[in-house]
Amino acid sequence: MTTQEQINQQLNHLNQEQLNQVADFITFLKFREKLTKPLKNIDKIAQLYQEFAEEDRQLAEIGMNEYADLLTQEDHR
Q1: What is the C-alpha to C-alpha distance for residues 11 and 5, in angstroms, rounded to an integer?
Q2: What is the DSSP letter of 40?
Q3: pTM for this entry
């Protein structure tokens, strides 16, 4: 007997309140599944990662250049 058949058999013995609770639990399971599904488009994720990595590198270089300029100004004082 499959799990589905076993569950169906057990459902036949539940009262209305218990069936309502089962229905609520099924709704919860479906909701949880939507929240925990991983992103399927790995190529898109990789592309975004590359774009942000390049942007981060550029911002870091700008920051380092500004820092170097400040150090140079400090040395001339």
Answers
A1: 10
A2: S
A3: 0.46
